[in-house]
Sequence to fold (229 residues):
Amino acid sequence: MRPETLVRDHTVYACVMGSRAFGLATEDSDTDRRGVFLAPTALFWRFDKPPTHVEGPAEEQFSWELERFCELALRANPSVLECLHSPLVEYADDTGRELLDLRGAFLSRRVHETFTRYAHGQRRKLEAHVRAHGAPRWKHAVHLLRLLTSARDLLRTGTLTIDVGDHRGPLLAVKRGEVPWPEVEARMTRLEREAGEAARRTPLPAGPDRRRVEDFLVRTRRASALLTR
Fold:
């Protein structure tokens, strides 16, 4: 089965991500689409297994196979967790709706490590660009500030919200280069500190509910196998 066929015929969940989901879209913003497809169980019985992810077939489109998506979400992968919390859901069948109902099962204190590690990597890239060119990539700086704010608030409340809300204006000012880089750096440092403080008293559990997620995956695989009889 061709990869694009898996996306076209077996998608269980699809959403818009990027600036549009974050509440930071402008007139020239792309539309980034993300999704989850359920490869038919029978495909796993062959030597050549179905792909864990597919790029396309449309531009700016990326999809994960359900098992891979769940694995990454259990590891608190920031991009995957945010995908589950997009306010712009374009499609969800019964399996997709059950996946959305599992959002809380994936959240745990691990988000502090994974979000922080990702943020540190992005900040090093920004700083290297400043050293080389005298200024950061402002768009990247904006999304790092957004991510750090989202992580801090998640650790404080136990709820992941990716729309920036009232922060839109200040963040777009950063994107336009209207805020000095030292001030942006200070904001990043403050958000990192506040996230660390929130992690010490977060309402999130120590780990995700792996058993609940695995039960969902097994039931879904079994139902798919029965359809091929």
About this structure: Residues 109 and 225 are 35 Å apart (CA to CA). The chain has eleven helices and five strands.
